[in-house]
TrEMBL record:
Belongs to the carbohydrate kinase pfkB family. Belongs to the carbohydrate kinase PfkB family. Ribokinase subfamily. Its cofactor is Mg(2+). K(+) binds at D236, T238, S274, A277, G279, S283. SUPFAM superfamilies: Ribokinase-like. Activated by a monovalent cation that binds near, but not in, the active site. The most likely occupant of the site in vivo is potassium. Ion binding induces a conformational change that may alter substrate affinity. GO terms for biological process: D-ribose catabolic process; generation of precursor metabolites and energy; glucose 6-phosphate metabolic process; nicotinamide nucleotide metabolic process; purine nucleotide metabolic process. Substrate binds at G26, K27, G28, A29, N30, E127, D242. It is found in: Cytoplasm; Nucleus. GO terms for molecular function: ATP binding; metal ion binding; ribokinase activity. This is Ribokinase.
Amino acid sequence: MAHLTTRLPRAGETILGHKFFIGFGGKGANQCVQSARLGAKTSLICKVGKDSFGNDYVENLKKNGISTAFVGQTADAATGTASIIVNSEGQNVIVIVPGANLLLNFEDLKRASDVICKAKVVVCQLEITPAVSLEALKMARASGVKTLFNPAPALPDLDPQFYTHSDIFCCNETEAEILTGIPVGNLEDAEKVGHMLLERGCKLVIVTLGAEGCMMISVEEPIPKHVPAGKVRAVDTTGAGDSFVGALAFYLACYPKLPMEEMIRKSNCVASVSVQASGTQSSYPFRKDLPQDLF
Ligand SMILES: Nc1ncnc2c1ncn2[C@@H]1O[C@H](COP(=O)(O)OP(=O)(O)OP(=O)(O)O)[C@@H](O)[C@H]1O
Ligand SMILES: [K+]
């Protein structure tokens, strides 16, 4: 939920804001929404609270055609939230309470094992307990399901098994720096990150570079490739990373024979549409609104 104000309040101060809105999020949900809008059959495995936010959350997923069979609702924690205050200069303060997300456990994964093991692609992030995310990747892998891992929010001491259990490891510049210690400001830096992550056991690494598109490198093709994004007029880049990951998951699942570079190029196109509208899920394009040569 976001509050727009002219300036940020000081400790103990009450100020008036001029706008308030609630948007749905969670990286997993955002990615799922983007995949679903492109036409993928999707299911989200997560946990929310038995509260009005949780009810609305489930409703929103259903509206987007996402299966909620494995969206648990618990009375033991509140739905995860992010409260954001943004001033007129665009500076913000944010409080995140993960809440019910942290209660998603191995039992929940076991209950969902059918969707995990029969999926074409499993996408994981780090907004739940990392060990649970890793277990989902392992379950997928053991069944020959393609794994796409997005290490967000990044942890400096990520369990090294995340590298070896990801078919595709996709991070942005900030995450790349936290994971490797290499500040990423250009393509060359991203290439260094790519080499380092391949050494750690990744099969294929993608570093997203905002308006510059992406860098990709793989064990099969260890020469880094730049996949540029089209030039667009960006109005709000919030959520672009999740749009990209969601689109990539769609192509991996629905067009598995496309060369990876082509999948990334198409995912860049989808994500570059999202930066031309404000908000996160509200900016994600539907298949019918995109150039049909993307399909
Ligand atoms: N200004 C832009 N113009 C065109 N495409 C963009 C732009 N910004 C982002 N994109 C697309 O979105 C993808 C992801 O962007 P980025 O690397 O900024 O992710 P991110 O930092 O995780 O984003 P965010 O945190 O804002 O969601 C890029 O690889 C590109 O395809
Ligand atoms: K956006």
